[in-house]
Amino acid sequence: MNQKDNIRIGLFGFGTVGQGIYSVIGRARNAHAEIKRICVRDVCKPRKVACDPGLLTDKASDLLDDPEIDLIVELIDDADASYQIVTSALRRGKPVVSGNKAMIAAHLPELIELQRETGTALLYDASSCGSIPVIRNLEEYYDNDLLLEVKGILNGSSNYILSQVFDHGRDYDSALARAQELGFAESDPSRDIDGIDSLFKLIIITVHALGVYVAPSEIFTYGIRTIKDCDIRYAREKRVKIKLVAQVVKVSESEFTMFVMPEFVVKSRYIYSVDDEYNGVVIRGECYDRQFMFGKGAGSLPTASSILSDVTARHYGYRYEYKKMGYAGRPAYTTDILLRVYLRSTGSQDIIGSLPFEKIHERYTSASCNYVIGDIRLSELIRHRRALSSPDIFLCNISRFFEEE
Amino acid sequence: MNQKDNIRIGLFGFGTVGQGIYSVIGRARNAHAEIKRICVRDVCKPRKVACDPGLLTDKASDLLDDPEIDLIVELIDDADASYQIVTSALRRGKPVVSGNKAMIAAHLPELIELQRETGTALLYDASSCGSIPVIRNLEEYYDNDLLLEVKGILNGSSNYILSQVFDHGRDYDSALARAQELGFAESDPSRDIDGIDSLFKLIIITVHALGVYVAPSEIFTYGIRTIKDCDIRYAREKRVKIKLVAQVVKVSESEFTMFVMPEFVVKSRYIYSVDDEYNGVVIRGECYDRQFMFGKGAGSLPTASSILSDVTARHYGYRYEYKKMGYAGRPAYTTDILLRVYLRSTGSQDIIGSLPFEKIHERYTSASCNYVIGDIRLSELIRHRRALSSPDIFLCNISRFFEEE
Fold this sequence. Notes:
2 copies of one chain form a homodimer.
Chain A: E1 7-12, H1 16-27, E2 33-39, E3 56-57, H2 61-64, E4 71-74, H3 79-91, E5 96-98, H4 101-118, E6 122-123, H5 134-140, E7 147-153, H6 156-168, H7 172-181, H8 190-193, H9 196-210, E8 220-221, H10 229-237, E9 241-250, E10 255-265, E11 278-285, E12 289-296, H11 300-315, E13 332-333, E14 338-345, H12 351-354, E15 359-365, E16 370-377, H13 378-383, H14 385-388, E17 393-398
Parallel strand pairs in A: 1-2, 1-4, 2-3, 4-5, 5-6, 8-10, 10-13, 10-17
Antiparallel strand pairs in A: 7-9, 7-11, 9-10, 11-12, 14-16, 14-17, 15-16
Helix pairs in contact in A: 1-11, 3-4, 4-9, 5-9, 6-7
């Protein structure tokens, strides 16, 4: 394509982010992009941002089969429909920009293969941490095997809730209600508070950080749903904040681990200060020590501006090369590592006693609350997932990795 | 070049960063790079990092004329010699990675033109903020005209000194001495403490942020050399820190300004927490609000890892496109803006009285120290540069731009 021409976009989805990208492209004089057609489920639904009704259609083929459309931007919620659109577009030789982390995290190996087969690019920087350019930097800048760790707060909703608790003294339920009121959390907040959204992002990040794909079901993921006042009190007494942290860490030359878990974060850590709906990512490497990136991880315009970065990258023919997937000596995924955790139970069943702790460092018992601080293998946490998901249990990582930060 | 082959590097300079890149390439198994020859002034000089003596030469032509060398990495201190090497290499069709900010800031328009003429690439991400990928992100990710401001702490040495003063209660002179002791400041620290190093970086950043080059002599640059106890006391009383801040800011749709100046930074700002030898950059845009990047801005290995990123980017044929220089409606540089400043004088001459303040908000007079808080045009500060450079004067910006942060 002539670089002077505008990229003509076929947009799937006209919700918050779709309307955001529509506004942003209108504002950016040098975006070199125009929206040619918008596919929505219901053409007649009233929307906040008005667009030429002639742009709207409810037929996917109006976009996918239009030879004048250069690029598909896919911003719909439904992961299955997103998968159909993205793979159909790639097979027709139309490059795609997508923000659907659930779909990408589930199908990434296949999507990488499909990009290779068809020679057509799929970009998805907006799928991880909204406006923070994490994927692009991992792919292009930290493009060598000196990277040791990517660790961060990847979900704005759960972070907003925890921030209301730890910075504004609210209890968990009223914090969640307030997040829902303000639109930071969905009416069904499961994905955010159960760590699923963070997990999807972590999977995508790991492909670009270490060149290895790990399927969602293999990764230990624990959220903040069961947090109780006694946990909050415990954290406050220790002068730490509880944050929902996703991390991928090299544990040796040849192995890495990854998980999503609440963590007691001390004040000296960068992510301690990532509050409200913000995201923050720490990238640690052998030579550059720690890099910290911080910004708005969600919301209509921040996400839209990230989508726009992918769109203009396509203007210059940019594609992910997945270089690290071809590296010699890629590290292998392991769950055979020892973690130190806080495990609290308020129920009558002795779940704590049934878990194979290798060492118990502290034990507290009272009428209303029992907890232990102990060392346990990550593989055992995975094996006991079901017991740990009880509403009476709360699990929190006591970061033992790399205490030197 | 076959992407499986190693890039063969001709390295100019084997000082701190040169030895760093030599070590880093040795460590990174998938760097796809090897150092084929090293040009130094004195082949016999003893060095901390040992290398095969057969690699060393003192003849530039041994590197520049070797057809087996694919890439020149230029890491010498002398800006004139650096200019000769870089332009000679580009004219011979050899791409260059350089870390010489003084040379690049002085000659960037010519170097851009030379890259166009010769079709040969020059990369210099390491020249601004060491390991923080500022240039690459401005060029590739924030590659649209929604960017409003880049503001940051770009010099580690002066920041280390100020951090010793504000976080560790030292006085300025002992902080400077300590910085020199630890190697964070040169025996002649002028470039760091007078803001010149920050200025060079700001010029390079501005080319990639807004697509406009402004020559060093046109930019107001004020350092921390003349800071005195009374200024430190004033800042402490107001619960702010003094930081040496470089910034480029759009002041309207069609104009931007830029300068380097100490600034009173309040606790709520991101850069307040950038301490010691760290650098931190805030990128503000119309849609994504603020992005903050933070990391080690200097030092052998952080800088070397940034050089390595440029080297491997060359492996994939990466070059800066300088896209924004071709944008319609690029903003114009202006110094016709009003700043609110703190101006302190301890001398007998009435320098404060001789400056054309448009409004004085506060005035303090005592036997040992006089200061005003007043509004003055940036163009007038430039016009009165000489008077302001008196050792009896200290000038500090009171950030009035964008108070909403």
